[in-house]
Specification:
five-stranded antiparallel sheet; three-stranded antiparallel sheet; alpha+beta
């Protein structure tokens, strides 16, 4: 009979009690919530990074393009007659106009080309408004076909002092996945040759 009681007792203890099931369920639920939250945070970080990298890249590429052109600017006496008093015309909000040499021979600069960079503030959509264009032409008023050089630019500012052009560019883009807005601002200064 003792052997029968022992077998019956072992059979009852073979399963899990209701309390043990509740404890295990609570631990698994907590662990699952933690893992789920970690996955969501990681996905948001990846989405923000995938938006932020192009924003910084666009700002940098636009700035480098403008810098390359400004290094070629001609601020000689002849150019200063075209754009008094410094040979460079700056609208502090969003535009710069200058001349660069076109044809040069032993006697010096024979012709110049007008170059203008500007931020488009017109347009129907925000995307159309946030574009930087470049115009280059052989005529004095810089009339020509605009060339798109930068997108997602919310601000473009220029300043000129003692032969140094300071350029500020801000690019902004909103992530479609997270609705987070990424912004990148670059400032650069260029010492212009013969631009005192």
């Amino acid at each position: 009979m003792n052997a029968l009681k022992e077998t019956y007792r072992n059979r009852n203890q073979a399963g899990m009690s209701l309390l043990e099931m509740i404890v295990v369920s609570a631990i698994l639920s907590t662990f699952s919530l933690f893992i789920g939250s970690l996955i969501m945070v990681t996905q948001d970080a990846v989405a923000i990074q995938s938006t932020g990298t192009p924003v910084r890249t666009e700002a940098k590429q636009t700035m480098e393009y403008i810098a390359k052109e400004l290094r070629e600017a001609d601020l000689s006496a002849a150019t200063r007659l075209l754009l008094p008093p410094n040979g460079i015309d700056i609208d502090p909000n969003n535009q710069i106009t200058f001349y660069k040499p076109d044809q040069i021979d032993d006697a010096g600069i024979q012709s110049r080309r007008c170059v203008q960079f500007y931020l488009n503030t017109g347009g129907i959509t925000t995307e159309e408004q946030q574009r930087v264009y470049r115009i280059e032409s052989s005529n004095q008023n810089c009339a020509g076909t605009p060339e798109l050089i930068g997108r997602n630019v919310s601000s473009l500012q220029f300043a000129f002092n003692n032969g140094v052009v300071t350029t500020n560019i801000t690019t902004t883009k909103t992530s479609q996945e997270t609705a987070a807005t990424m912004q990148s601002t670059l400032t650069s200064q260029f010492k212009l040759r013969n631009g005192g």
